[in-house]
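Q: Hi! First time asking for a complex rather than a single chain. Here are the components, and I think there are two in total. Is that enough to go on?
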Amino acid sequence: MTETMASTCTDEFVSVAGERLHLRRGGSGAPVLVLPHDIGNPGWLPFHQRLAERFEVLAPSHPGCDQSSRPDWMRSVRDVAVMYQSLVSSLGIERAVLVGLGFGGWIAAEMATMAPGYFDGLVLVGPMGVKPAEGEILDQALVNYIEYARAGFHDQSAFEQIYGAEPSTDQLETWDRNREMTFRIAWKPYLYSQTLPHLLGGVRARTLVVWGSEDRIVPRSCAERYVQAIPHARLEVIEGCGHCVDMERPAELAGLIEELVAS
Amino acid sequence: MHLMYFTEQPMSAYPADEGQAFGNTALMFSNRHFDPVEGSRLYNERLDEYLYAEEMGIDGIMLNEHHNAPFCMQAKANIFAAILAGMTKRVKIVLLGNPLPLAENPVRLAEELAMIDMISKGRLVSGFVRGGGQEQLATGVNPAFNRERFEEAHDLIVKTWTQPGPFRWEGTHYQHRVVNPWALPLQQPHPRIWIPGVLSTETIIWAAEHRYPYIALNTSIEATMRIWKTYDEAAEQVGYAPGPENRGYLQRIFVAESDEQALENARQFMWMQGEFTGLAHPVWSSPSGYFSPERRRAFVEFAVGRAISPRGRQSFEEQIDNMQIIAGTPTTVIPKLRRILEATRPGIMALWGSDGNVSHEDTKTCIRLLGQEVMPAMREIGQELGLNSPFEADAPVSLDATREPAAAGAAAG
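A: Yes, that's all I need. Here is the structure of the assembled complex.
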C-alpha cells in the first residue's frame, strides 16, 4: 500500500482550463510547487512532509494522471506548464519556489522560461526535457509498469516502502493511465523538447539541478545540459541514489531546497 | 461465398533456437537474423503460390502486413497488391488490411489504392486495420491516438475517393491543405472496405455502423457468435439487417493427400511459440492507450505476469479439437468446414493454408486441393445455406452508399 501521511495535508480538486486538478497542500510559509514524476504522485510522502515544516507545499497530480481529469485536447508538455501557471495564479500565489521531479522537472523548466520573474528558486531533480548528449532517456514503452517504477530506484527497499513489494492492481492501473498521458503529450520526441534548450537562457531563478549518481531513467548529460544553459545554475550529484531522489533521500533533498531558498 | 487464400508469409528461414532463446519475437528480435537471400527465395515462392491459387480457382487473395517480426514478411501490403494487380487476371485482391494509424499521409494511401484498383481493373478490396501494439512501436506512432487516427484516416481516404478535389482537410491528426490526387479508384463509389479483427468491440461496432463486412480472424465459434451479436445490434441501430454478406471468417486449415501429412504440416501453425503472431510480449503488444479503457485491468495484470493473455492461448490439440485449426484430406476437412459454415454463416471465408516451415511443394498441394476439391464443396454448402458474398448479394459498399442510390448499384465488382 501507498504510504501517506494524509492527516498533515488537505486534498482538493482545483478547476483549471476546464479540468479538475488533484492538489494536496500542507504546511505554511513561502509557497513551494512540487511537480511529480511521470509515474504520478502516490500521496503525501515524507519528502512533502519534510518540506512542509518550512514551506507551504503544493503537490498537484498532472492533468490526466492519478485522480486529475484528462484534457483530451492536450498535446504537449508546454500545455501542462501553462496549466500550472494558471493554477498558481488562480490560487493567488505571488511568487513561488518550483521543484520538478524527473518528468516534472521538464514542466518546471518550461514554466521558469515562460515566467522568469515569478520564481524565487528552481530545483530540477533528474530532469527530463532536453535531449541527452550521451545516453538515452529510458523508454518505458518497452518495460512493464513495475519494472519502470523500480528502475527509478537504486535502493529497492525505498520503492517497497512506498509501493509495496507487490504493487496492487489499482496501482498498476494508475501507472497505465499515467503512462498513457505521458504518451499523449511526450511521445515524439520522447520525453524531451527540441526548443526548450534555446529558451533556458532566459531563466532568472537561482537554479539547482540534482542528479542521483545511479539514475537509470535520465542520463547525467541531461542534468549537465540544464546547468550549462541556465544562467544561475549548479549541479548537485547525490551519490548512491537513483532517479527518484525525493523518495530515496527525502530529507537530503529537502535540505538542499532549504539551502537554495536561504542563500 | 467468396473464398480467399491467405498466408502470413512467414520468414521461417532464421535460427529458431535464437528466437526461442530471445522469447518474444515480435518487435525486438534482432534483424541480424534476417537473411535477404532466403527472403528473396521466400517472396518469390509466395508469388508463385498466389498465381497458382488463381489457376486453381480461388476467388480472392488476402494480403496483410506486419513489422519487425519473422511471423510476417509483408512490410507493405500494397506492394504485393500492386504486383498481383498486374500479374493476375481474375482474383480479388483483398487487403486486410492497411494499418491506417501508421500512415502519416492517408492521401498517399488513397492514391496507392486507387492505382492498384485501376491496374487490377477493379479487383481491389481495401480493408483497413488499427495495426497491432508492436506495430505502433515499430513505426514510432503514438498508441494513445490509435483509434482516433484510424477513424480520421478512414474518413479522409473515403472522402478523397468520393469527393472531387481540390479540397482541404483540417482534422485532429491530419491536415492537408490541398487534397487533389490524380489517381482515383475504378470501382464506384469506391472499392469495398472490409474490416478484420479479433478482440475489440469498438471496431466491430464501427464496422457495423459503416455497413462494412467484419472478418473474424480465427476466433472460436462461440466468440464469433458474440461478434455477430454485437455487429447485429449495432447494425439494427443504424437501420439495416445484416446477413452473411456482412460476415467473414478466417480459418486455419491444411489440406494434404493424407490426414497424417496434413496434421504434420498443420503443426506449423504453432511455429511461432504457439501464437500465430509470435509469442506476444505483454507490454509491447499492448502499449498504454492502445487498448480500450474497459480492458485496462486485464491488460495491466497480463503486463506484469499476474494473468494470462486476455487474447487467450491454446495448445495445438485443443485447437484441432475445437476446429480453430482444421487438417486432413478434403474428405476429412469438408464436414468440419460445414459445421463452421452452419454455425457462423459467413459470406466471406478466408482459408489460411500454410505457415512456418511448410515447404513450397506441400503448400502448392494444399492450394490445389483447396481450389479443386474443398472450395467447390464449400460453394455448394454456401448455396444450400444461402451464404451470399457481398458481390453475390450486390450489397452496398457502405451505409453512406445506400443513401446515394445512383452510386450504390455500380459498386459490385
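A: The mean pLDDT of chain B is 94. Let me know if you'd like any chain examined more closely.
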